[in-house]
Amino acid sequence: MQANKNTAKLLLHCPDKPGIISAVTDFITINKGNIVYLDQYVDHIENIFFMRIEWELSDFLIPREKIEDYFDTLYAQKYEMNFRLYFSDVKPRMAIFVSKMSHCLFDMLARYANGEWNVEIPLIISNHPNLQHVADKFGIPFYLFPITKETKAEQEAKEMELLAKHKVNFIVLARYMQVISENMINSYPNRIINIHHSFLPAFVGAKPYHAAFERGVKIIGATSHYVTTELDAGPILEQDVVRITHKDTVEDLVNKGKDLEKIVLSRAVQKHIERKVLAYKNKTVIFS
Amino acid sequence: MQANKNTAKLLLHCPDKPGIISAVTDFITINKGNIVYLDQYVDHIENIFFMRIEWELSDFLIPREKIEDYFDTLYAQKYEMNFRLYFSDVKPRMAIFVSKMSHCLFDMLARYANGEWNVEIPLIISNHPNLQHVADKFGIPFYLFPITKETKAEQEAKEMELLAKHKVNFIVLARYMQVISENMINSYPNRIINIHHSFLPAFVGAKPYHAAFERGVKIIGATSHYVTTELDAGPILEQDVVRITHKDTVEDLVNKGKDLEKIVLSRAVQKHIERKVLAYKNKTVIFS
Amino acid sequence: MQANKNTAKLLLHCPDKPGIISAVTDFITINKGNIVYLDQYVDHIENIFFMRIEWELSDFLIPREKIEDYFDTLYAQKYEMNFRLYFSDVKPRMAIFVSKMSHCLFDMLARYANGEWNVEIPLIISNHPNLQHVADKFGIPFYLFPITKETKAEQEAKEMELLAKHKVNFIVLARYMQVISENMINSYPNRIINIHHSFLPAFVGAKPYHAAFERGVKIIGATSHYVTTELDAGPILEQDVVRITHKDTVEDLVNKGKDLEKIVLSRAVQKHIERKVLAYKNKTVIFS
Amino acid sequence: MQANKNTAKLLLHCPDKPGIISAVTDFITINKGNIVYLDQYVDHIENIFFMRIEWELSDFLIPREKIEDYFDTLYAQKYEMNFRLYFSDVKPRMAIFVSKMSHCLFDMLARYANGEWNVEIPLIISNHPNLQHVADKFGIPFYLFPITKETKAEQEAKEMELLAKHKVNFIVLARYMQVISENMINSYPNRIINIHHSFLPAFVGAKPYHAAFERGVKIIGATSHYVTTELDAGPILEQDVVRITHKDTVEDLVNKGKDLEKIVLSRAVQKHIERKVLAYKNKTVIFS
User: Fold this and answer.
1) Where do the ACT domain residues begin and end (chains A, B, C, D) (predicted)?
2) Which residue of D has its CA nearest to B101?
């Protein structure tokens, strides 16, 4: 029975104290849950304990709809925990925002078509019509919202309605060339993932490859981060780099950068989907 | 006869035009020079041609002391070339400036002791006494110049006298924790090599590992560059990076960074010693 | 006029002698060709000179259909050159062979759909029906040739007919899980590009991720090479690696490896398309 | 009081069962130990649980000389644990074996001189006199044991006496160009660390850089592993790689490889010193 393999995933953080791991593992073990994953980390500067634990639900004594309540009552309050509970058979729903460049979109949709990601992608939103054909290839609804200064607030309101209607849990900005307004960002805290085409915090803002070329760096990078109201300054999920030389033109950087961007973004999205990211203040704990 | 293996190394740049490679290779070939290295590059934006060529001197018809003059008269003026000529049997003389951290110093002196670098190191200069013992281990004179705001100008003047006396050609700042003043920088244009413990232009200035930790980056780096009067902004010679995680403390970054710093600095110094660097405007051409 | 930008690309190798660069650049310059690319390399052990040169054809005095003949008569014979001439406006025609895994296929077709590669892909050939849907998404004819020991010779003969009919210049094995027979390999010398899912020469043959897991390596790799009659032993075009830990299962290796494989294969194919690869004996010169 | 910071480090593995983490953390917490590190891992294929835990001893209720006994009685037998206990104030004693190449030796001694490693290095052993001068620079006794086929057994016997006399806990082969005989290997199980100058399992045995050059690989590597009786086949501690090109000669590979070798070896030795390695069968668990 495939259902037997369903798991619960618990992510939590709280002030560090002795006995938390024991308490949480006891809770699961006593109730006949088989732990299949445990990773924890203590930030000794902030004195915060972080944990991710996953267990099989097949023989678990607590009905799944009551786990959250029980855990809250029995442990979370006592330890002042901030926690979230997920079930492996509930797929998060992800919207992709794009503009004109297709490489990140293709990379994610190829994984999706291949069943690699435990996610639903109910829609793609764009401010340009260029990538309609990509959405069509994969049979995913494509919504066009052209944006000007004047129409931005109005268009974003419509986008948010659409996202709500499609029960979207998180948003991926796949080289979406528009700054998201504060209102939308605040509606999806640590749930909007961006890819920035530089090794942040170097080259914040527009045209980072041009800036990298001008500076004469020997390595370029890409950074995936959660979007906050400060531009390119949110918690970083993943970064990677590639070596360049003086022979590389700006166009070469753009092309080498594309492969970086798509891989870095997809790794970040995958970690998010697997519930392996815990953002705390302006940093992330990435569980293994 | 070992002398047969002596080579001349010519580095040049000039406005790009047809026929430069032919002209230069003809000059060498006609005069019975055996070319053992040729690398060239055209910057199509600036329209500048860069070249490094090396040939064996054993049968070369032009006496070595006249090569520069002949080349200048016959070619350099015609093509508006900026060129430099070096001989493999003339070792450049390098001074090392240090403060308290030994890792870069040890790494360079180990290579020197092992005969890996075609260089002379007549002296080490420091603003702190801490690394005298390292200099002593390798038998290299160590000069102490403590520096305060008040004594800086005076001490640097003495340092420059000492450098002149030792016929120093270039300076390596091996985690030297003092900003070099403009006067000294201008005396050694593109001949002072620094190692900065970040992936520039991210985290310019003091305490980059602390800044990297605060920002929550997933990769840290090190950058070796020529020193110019603008802090950490000179032409970059070499960069490299290493992956970190949320588990790494500032101390971990410092420790992981040490290996990066020493390798990046040594690679940069080696390229400089081998005459494989051509700085142009604020960037470098690094020949292969 | 876009036609003005058309270029000729000449790749050659020959015994090293003085004067070859001069001769070749003179040939182009005298005939009013504007050189836009030159890279050369001397293998001092084999004493072979390798060169890639590219020039604009707009004002070139020799008609393009006669360049090969002239160059052969004037230079190639004198210097015992082995050379090939390509024109930028003649797109090479590439066939993709697949089996069941889609990641490499998707990656290449995404680049193709996006116009990143100067290539034609007239057909996809497979021994399994699984990836028909990918070919359909991109509108590329998909031909199914199931292969058993008994039918192999016969099916490959049909494949070769089809390749000839479509004027295919080179073949990419995108995780094609069949050994190509000698006859087909010899028909496409250094024109069949494979991706092997290990850091060759480690883990030749089947199931390299399982072997890597068993051996307990800390890094896995992927290798793209030209196919020769010896399994996984042909000239290597490109390799890359990714770090793993003891926590990674075989499935994790397979998943991490997918991203490696697709990027390594695509880089290799791109170099081949750009005519930047010169295979010599069992190695490759990759021009910058 | 600095003594307060002393810690105990417990490494263990046993068949995986529910409740082990609870049991171990309870043992420490109940006895007033402050846990400063915990990392664990389950090998679900072998069904083995691995753990490293570290706690401060200042208020620990069990006297340090009795911890091992208590833990064994109370937990280890019950859970069939294989465990080792270390104290942070007991420095392991390390012997270095060298032959003629100095780069790895210099790198380790620089760290040692700088106080970076919590280790004692009472002696250096060599089969060649070449590196006496390096040992002298750092004031470490250097013992010369020339080895021929005929004298090997006898010389190794003397070496082992010397190692015993100096209470050596583990041995580092820093480019020691002699195969260690079975007898010595069995006396130091998983306590002889070697650096092999290739990306194992590629290029086992002698002259790996020559083999890499012949094969035309695009990346070279280095591997640090525990020595077992099968050549270059023991549990791998650390690997790293560097990119090369067709332009690199064998000498270039040797030089680029040196930096790799010393960094890879030093990382491996550091992990070993920090008690972060647990070898199991032919693989290692490397704690974070």
Assistant:
1) 9-95
2) D114
Rounded to two decimals, the ipTM of the complex is: 0.94
CA distance D196 to chain A (A): 26
Interatomic CA distance for residues B115 and B105, integer angstroms: 15
Residue B2 has pLDDT above 50, yes or no: no
> What span, in angstroms and rounded, lies between the C-alpha atoms of D260 and D245?
16
| Residues carrying CATH 3.40.50.170, chain B | 93-286
Instruction: Name the active-site residue from B232, B240, B248, B259.
Output: B232
Interface mutation vs chain A, best among B11, B46, B210, B246, most A CBs within 10 Å: B246
Torsions phi, psi of D47, nearest 5? 55, 45
Alpha-carbon span C178 to C131, nearest angstrom: 16
**Cβ atoms of residues D195 and D174 within 8 Å:** yes
Contact between C114 and A102 using a beta-carbon 8 Å cutoff = yes
Cross-chain Cβ contact D107/B107 below 8 Å: yes
Residue D3 pLDDT greater than 50, yes or no: no
Subunit contact C110:A103, Cβ cutoff 8 A: yes
For residue range B171-182, list pLDDT tens digits in order. Answer: 999 999 999 999
AA identity, residue D87: F
Contact in structure between C7 and C87 (CB atoms under 8 Å): yes
pTM, full prediction: 0.96
For residue A276, the SS3 value is coil
Q: What residues does CATH 3.30.70.260 cover in chain C?
A: 2-87
Q: What percent of chain A has pLDDT over 70?
A: 99
Superfamily of domain D2-87: ACT domain (3.30.70.260)
Angle between helices C103-113 and C250-273 (to 10 degrees): 40
CATH dotted code for A93-286: 3.40.50.170
Instruction: Give residue-wise pLDDT tens across range C168-212.
Output: 999 999 999 999 999 999 999 999 999 999 999 999 989 999 999
Q: Quote the CA–CA distance of C238 and C266 in Å, as a whole number.
A: 10
Find the DSSP H helices in chain A. Answer: 20-30, 64-71, 103-113, 132-137, 152-165, 182-187, 208-215, 250-273
SS3 content of chain A, % helix, strand, coil (to 5): 35, 30, 40
Residues of C with Cβ-Cβ distance to A110 under 8 angstroms: 102-103, 106-107, 110
Interface B-D, measured as beta-carbon pairs within 8 A, has a size of 41
Q: Which chain D residue has the Cα nearest residue B139?
A: D137
Residues 31 to 70 of B: which have CB under 8 A from any A CB?
41, 43-45
Spell out which residues of chain D touch residue A25, defining contact as CB-CB under 8 Å.
18-19, 21-22
For residue B171, the one-letter residue type is I
D274 contact B CB<8A: no
C248 is catalytic: no
Listed residue (B247, C248, B243, B214) closest to A285, CA to CA: B247
